[in-house]
């Protein structure tokens, strides 16, 4: 199958040795020295980054079509949905072959599976629906069947799956109250821990970041002495300007700490469309493949700058097919299935779920994973001074091996747009450490020398002038910390 990668424009600048920006009444030319070399998941020991592989339980994507591109992303974890209804199509009869293939393959590619137990199963009365907002199992028979399915999962994947997440976005269904979620969580988590005592368990997977949902959950666990069942509370929270969500994250983080000193928060599912779409999160906005890349980088690096484990949703576009609906309490088959597409993928999918091409965001994600692994440590409250009039995000990192630094910078005041125009500003880093600083555009992966007359140092005080910035992350980085792509001979 011939795949159109559509990446020519990303690397065109590598053919030309320089580029220019109009700035502060003058033109400044940077010399190109190459591009970021991607690293596979096998080549990266550990990092903050996960990738979404969701919806295969409903066949909205086809693993065999995109699996060859997984390890090349550099992601260290992948979120998968186990799919009760797909695993148990007939009462008491299980089919795990589809999930076996996926879990074994992702592990072989150096990616750790993170397995979510969801959704309902309509073969049981009161078993819920097999889709988002479908509702928990509630009848005695359905709950017993749920318990048995979870036990079968845990026994089967013990030794292969350590990370388990219980349900997805339960807060989207008004019937899924905090009390109802707390009960399904505890019964499920106890089954998991009974077979895998060392299991890492993720809770809540909230669509909306509401204290009113989290606090009753934590209070329930405390009352029943079950707080030890939770390791991570996963939060979503789609916002057009990615930085807008953090005040809500901080509230949840503060609340969680008041109950437990071992539970952390993690970003468990966020992504951005690559075109204007009428359905799903972040709909009805003129997104492009450029603005998608910007959004992705800003959200993930914003999480990193707050020490929040982070996931991008999703690796490939999802072709949604809805065939069931609940009418007057009864589940019925739709006469005409509803087809929609969710374009948040790093890979463009065709209608038959085959791969069309790798989007620019795929390569931007590779740039992220290549540079920001666990060998870089965040510098808390990295000190800087700037003449910028716009709102900025600025975070500093140091290398374990050398103490040299990488600084991430972007304009954060608005929703990412489609423009690639940049303006220039000056920076002072009062506790910097650079020997040979370079400029990196994270979106394209291009690397440039910073002219010697545009930076200076006095002890640990560094000055950088005329640094081009825009609403997408750029780096001022020590050259030795950036793996450069080898030039073809």
Index terms:
489 residues, alpha/beta, TIM Barrel, 8-stranded antiparallel β-sheet, 8-stranded parallel β-sheet, 10 helices, 28% strand, globular, disordered N terminus
Provide an overview of this structure.
By secondary structure, this protein is an alpha/beta fold. The chain folds into 2 domains: 10-39 and 377-481; 47-371, TIM Barrel (Alpha-Beta Barrel), CATH 3.20.20.80. Helices cover 24% and strands 28% of the residues. The protein is built from 10 helices and 24 strands. The protein has an 8-stranded antiparallel sheet with strand order 1-2-21-20-24-18-17-15. An 8-stranded parallel sheet has the order 9-8-7-6-5-4-3-10. A 4-stranded antiparallel sheet has the order 16-19-23-22, with no helix packed on it. The longest helix is centred in the first third of the chain and has 18 residues, at 140-157. It is globular and about 75 Å long. Mean pLDDT is 92; it is low at 1-28.
Mean pLDDT: 92
Helical amount: 10-25%
Sheet with the most strands: spatial strand order: 1-2-21-20-24-18-17-15
Beta-strand content: 25-35%
- The low-confidence parts are 1-28
- Secondary structure category: alpha/beta
Specify the CATH class of the largest domain. Alpha Beta
Question: Roughly how many Å is the radius of gyration?
Answer: 23 Å
Number of individual domains: 2
CATH topology of the largest domain: TIM Barrel
Please tally the β strands and state the result: 24
Provide a count of the helices.
Answer: 10
Distance between the termini: 28 Å
- Tell me about the biggest sheet? 8 strands, antiparallel
CATH superfamily of the largest domain: Glycosidases
């Amino acid at each position: 199958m011939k795949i159109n990668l559509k990446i020519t424009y990303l690397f065109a600048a590598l053919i030309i040795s320089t580029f220019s920006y109009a700035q502060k009444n003058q033109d400044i030319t940077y010399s190109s020295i190459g591009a970021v070399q991607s690293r596979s998941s096998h080549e990266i020991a550990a990092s903050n980054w996960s990738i979404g592989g969701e919806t295969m339980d409903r066949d909205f994507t086809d693993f065999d079509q995109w699996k060859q591109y997984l390890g090349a992303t550099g992601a260290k974890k992948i979120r998968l949905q186990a799919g009760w209804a797909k695993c148990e199509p007939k009462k008491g009869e299980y089919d795990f072959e589809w999930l076996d293939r996926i879990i074994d393959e992702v592990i072989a590619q150096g990616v750790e599976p993170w397995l979510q137990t969801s959704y309902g199963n309509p073969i049981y009365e009161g078993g819920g629906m097999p889709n988002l907002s479908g509702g928990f199992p509630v009848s005695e028979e359905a709950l017993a069947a749920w318990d048995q399915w979870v036990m079968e999962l845990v026994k089967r994947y013990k030794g292969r799956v350590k990370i388990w997440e219980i349900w997805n976005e339960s807060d989207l269904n008004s019937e899924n109250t905090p009390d109802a979620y707390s009960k399904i969580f505890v019964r499920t988590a106890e089954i998991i821990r009974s077979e895998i005592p060392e299991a890492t368990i993720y809770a809540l997977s909230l669509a909306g970041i509401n204290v009113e949902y989290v606090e009753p959950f934590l209070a329930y666990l405390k009352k029943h002495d079950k707080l030890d069942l939770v390791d991570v509370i996963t939060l979503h929270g789609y916002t057009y300007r990615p930085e807008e969500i953090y005040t809500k994250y901080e509230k949840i983080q503060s609340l969680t700490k008041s109950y437990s000193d071992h539970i952390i928060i993690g970003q468990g599912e966020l992504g951005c469309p690559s075109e204007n779409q009428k359905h799903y999160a972040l709909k009805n906005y003129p997104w492009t493949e450029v603005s998608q890349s910007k959004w992705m980088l800003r959200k993930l690096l914003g999480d990193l700058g707050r020490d929040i484990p982070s996931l991008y949703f999703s690796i490939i576009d999802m072709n949604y097919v809805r065939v069931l609906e609940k009418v007057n309490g009864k589940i019925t088959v739709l006469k005409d299935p509803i087809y929609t597409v969710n374009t948040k993928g790093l890979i463009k999918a065709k209608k038959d779920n085959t791969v069309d091409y790798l989007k620019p965001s795929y390569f931007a994600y590779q740039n992220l994973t290549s540079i920001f692994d666990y060998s870089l440590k965040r510098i808390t409250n990295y000190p800087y001074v700037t003449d910028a009039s716009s709102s900025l995000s600025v975070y500093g990192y140091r290398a374990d091996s050398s103490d040299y630094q990488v600084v991430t910078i972007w304009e954060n005041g608005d929703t990412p747009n489609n423009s690639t125009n940049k303006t220039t500003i000056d920076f002072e880093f009062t506790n910097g450490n650079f020997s040979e600083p370079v400029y990196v555009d994270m979106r394209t992966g291009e690397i440039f020398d910073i002219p010697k007359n545009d930076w200076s140092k006095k002890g640990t005080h560094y000055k950088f002038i005329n640094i081009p910035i825009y609403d997408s992350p750029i780096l001022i980085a020590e050259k030795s910390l950036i793996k450069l792509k080898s030039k073809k001979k």
